[in-house]
Amino acid sequence: MSAPDTQRYTLRCRGRLDADFLADYCPAGTTLTIGQESFTLANLHTDQAGVLGIIRSLHNLGCTLLALTIDTSDE
């Protein structure tokens, strides 16, 4: 994976998710914020194939994707 191919994504989903999902499916540094009816996975530093794999895993757990954004801020 080369640097130009990677982005920082944020996913907001409806459903239930536990912290084990981070260790099992997400790149290091990903954060999980759980709300009343949704959760947010932020700082997903991966390529497009990686984020699609995470979305597929969430779908298999019965979660609904509400929003997908790319962090375009300069670091």
TrEMBL record:
Name the UniProt record assigns to this protein: Uncharacterized protein
Origin species: Candidatus Viridilinea halotolerans
